[in-house]
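Follow-up to my post from last week.
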Amino acid sequence: MNLVDNILYDMLYHSTPILLAVLGGLFAHKANVLNIGLEGMMLTGAFSSALVVMLTGSLWLGLVISVLLTLVLGLVFSFLSVTLKSNFIITGFGINLFAAALSAFVLKFMKLANINVSSVVDVASLKIHIPLLADIPILGSILSGHTAITYAGYILIIAAGIVLYHTKFGVYVRVVGENEEAAKSVGINANAVKYAAVLIGAALCALAGMELSVERLALFTNNMTAGRGFIAIAAIYCGRGEPLKCALYALLFGLAKSLAINLALFAGPISGLFEIVPYLTIVVVLFMVSVIQNRNNNVRGFKLE
Amino acid sequence: MNAIAAVNLTKKYGDFVANDNINLSIAKGEITAIVGENGAGKTTLMNMFYGLQRPTCGEIYVNDQKVNFSTPLDAINCGLGMVHQHFKLVPSLTIFENILLGAEINQRVVLKGRFEIHLPFIDRRRERKAVDRLIHDYKFELDPDERVENISIGAKQRVEILKMLYRNVDILIFDEPTAVLTPQEVDELLVNFKELKKQGKTIILITHKLREVMEVSDRVIVIKKGRVVGSKPTNQTSPEEIAAMMVGREVMLQVNKEKKPALGNKVAYRVSGLSTNNYSGKKVLNNISFEIREGEILGVAGVEGNGQSELVKVLSGLMVSTEGKVQLYDEDITNKWPNELRKSGVGIIPEDRYAQGLCKEMSLSDNLIAGYHSDGKFCRYGILDKKNARKNRDTLLEKYDIRVADPEGAVSQLSGGNAQKVIIAREFDSDPKVLIASQPTRGVDIGSIEFIHNKLLELRRLNKAILLVSSELSEIMGLSDRIIVMYKGKIVGEVEGDKADSSRLGLLMAGITK
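User reply:
Got it. Predicted complex:
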């Protein structure tokens, strides 16, 4: 594999957790719920799946339990912010702090520096080599050899589009976000729709977390999500909640990460500096998107819709 | 047989009684008008009928059956539908999607003519066909594929009506249906009412516009301060009698304006070639030019959403123009910030008094100096002179007859009329050279309307220039010396105030210039 192949393969690889969080978060976004807790949900997914896999040795059990735990977190978030109408930012931030603190506490309690499940999970064997596709030159080396959750993530882009635009639930999510009163007046339970939107996000964040810890590295370390949940929020904002657009932004941020890692190899002593590339990219992209979205704004000091 | 009956219906919010022992019955197949001032409790009553609010005590009967609705869906299932004053539509969806919202038709697959499988996907083709049939049945003019964000207000209202009819309701409640329509659209709506009545529907019309009441209703019920104060067959009463019942005293339905030619006066305010774009780049103001002379009231008429809001925003410094010029006498005040405008002598009564005119949670004295707080009178070396502000408050409360329970309290305690008077007091007392008044009497009781109109005329006598933007056509016609009509961001016509009649203005408001 040459450098370009590596960069593109890594782009898909690094986009996956962001992409899953994006697909999960965009339902909440469309329903007008700002789920800033994506980061914490992802971390919980990463932590609980690694822990369960270490304790039981079963990948499936890890998957199921981590999804259940993040759903509980999603329920807590919805209950506080939707039912009790607390502030989204503070609630989400609380979720994030709680997730980070809980995982750190459990590690301390178990006297572990990290959770290493490499004795149970063989990372190499989790990579799926798709027959035929793998044989195509260049393309094969980029597209083949990813994990199951990675492939699931890319298939889910289409699924999210279909759900959002061709089913009752999707229409309701958009209606609740656009005009909640309209939804209520025809008897749509707006709060239930918001709960569902948040819970979908929570479940997909669990997948993102599991991909990050168990499937990719067979290792959980403290705060290993490193802001990916927030990157996902940035992608959702830039893509205005449309699945395909948001996914493209997720890929863009994945590309930034992949470039940072691959190019750092040639950077010698300053390679550490490349770590900031993905985050810098987000600031620049957000800035550009905001400038473009506001180019027609003639209103002073008022919030725009 | 009664379509709806209320027995001892009461709704309390804490100590405040919105509906006090209401007893009324609405006959099946008739058009009943429920009239009353803003805040009289009409909307609360309808919200209880429709399941949006629960009564504190009392009973509701629909078709002689006792009901207990907890959501609007219960009401709809019982054959009761409501068309709200603020439409409950989703702009980005099409007309047929809006009509079928909450009652979507899913795709089905029939296998071997026997097994039917329901798919989770929406069947747009069948939905469209159902709506097509409905539009045809009730003789409405609509294209089901149009997106709601692109259609006129009258059309939006028809969509709301169809939304209810699709759900097979036979009692329709209309909350202030004509508030935002052109006179021609009002006529069309009244025709629709008669057609619906012919098809056996019962209609309840909530309004404070007496012309419609007289024209279309069979019975009128008057509500005042949460109580039913009168119920009469429409043909046995008169507009004057209804108005007196609503307010509790005789009222002047017409404004008395002494005519005074302003033609020779100096031009105080001149706008030339003003344009601006909205957020999505659409031109919402297109080359607007007009001038106002001293002692003149210039009325701006138009169906809401044709650029009047943007015009007021640009003129009051809340929005920036892309082209054009605004002049106050010889001073160029284009795109100045609100505080600079006020310093130059522009008084502003904004469209939405709670969003742009007042700060609800702040005290009366603070609100009464807002915008003028850096004036030397109230502020020295950056420190507010609270004592002087309170003195100012006491003078203004007295002078403008603002009724408050607690002068030290916040603005949130005031009724709509008194809150508007706070703005009027503040802006008028600063002795502006020109006043921009947007919807000055929206949501205000009849007593305060009279007061505000008289104040505007008083300012006119003092030789000030006044720009009056209002969606109440009668207000524009009663007060203005000249009227300009806006349509799609442009001025489509100008009419002399004393030659204006509603049918001529109505045509202009619909963009028909002949």
